[in-house]
Design goal:
The chain is an alpha/beta fold and 179 residues long. It is 34% helix and 22% strand. The chain has a 7-stranded mixed beta sheet. It has a two-stranded antiparallel sheet with strand order 3-4. A two-stranded parallel sheet has the order 8-9. Strand 1, helix 1 and strand 2 form a beta-alpha-beta unit. Helix 1 packs parallel to helix 5 and helix 5 crosses helix 6. The radius of gyration is 15 Å and the shape is globular.
Length: 179
Amino acid sequence: MIAAIIMDNGFEELEAMGPIALLRRAGIQVDVIRVEGNEVTGRFNVTYSPSILFSEYDFSKADCLILPGGPHYQKLKKNKDVLSLIHEFAKKKVLAAICASPTILGQEGILKGKKYTCFKELDEDFGGEYQYQYVVTDGNIITGISAAASIDFAYAIIEKLLGKEKCDQLKASIYWYAR
């Protein structure tokens, strides 16, 4: 399994790095994709390296597309190539977005008729059913509410890609939890 995570300068570090670490721990290859430039730096000045330039990445090999939130979502929602890719994944593969990034999905009509969550103050009438909870999975679309939900968001992606049993094994390897 391969997950591609798209980041531009200003991404929310917790919403990117938590899922990257947990997905890799679960055995999923995570490719960090930067939209432009030579590096990608988060809103709190953490630079992620290595990363692959968007125009040089073969997205057909990815099973999942992840969009962390943060101020970079404003840039992502204006990028026609990113929007086209989001629509591709919404139709055929797993598409995961957290915090501000689900608003991109909503504004593109992808959340119409779906249950979803996003940062509450950014929720608009996207034609779906807003759920005030950490993570919502509806079909192949996974949405998370905020940075506080980063771990649960990662678990939802892992469960979708590898199944509940593998996700539970990962959780058990990290800490004890009630089954």
